[in-house]
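Hi P.,

Sorry for the delay on this. The queue was packed all week, but I finally got your sequence through. Input first:
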Amino acid sequence: MTVCDQDKEEIGLNIFTDPLYQPFESRVTLSKQISAEPSGTGEYSFKATGSETVVTKKASWDTISLHGRTWRVILVNKV
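Then the structure:
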């Protein structure tokens, strides 16, 4: 689930099940990789922030523990 994003419409959505993400197979695939691996990098295609234009984005992530929970922190940049 997305808890923070520049596109407010994405907050609270489940990347694996929400229809917004289904046309973007590379985003869903990378999200599965992020779920399985504690850190890494990868690229995917998705809409540019605030736009309908599809761009390539690069994600870098790491794992932290906070208040007894494990969180993936992901930074995304347009390529």
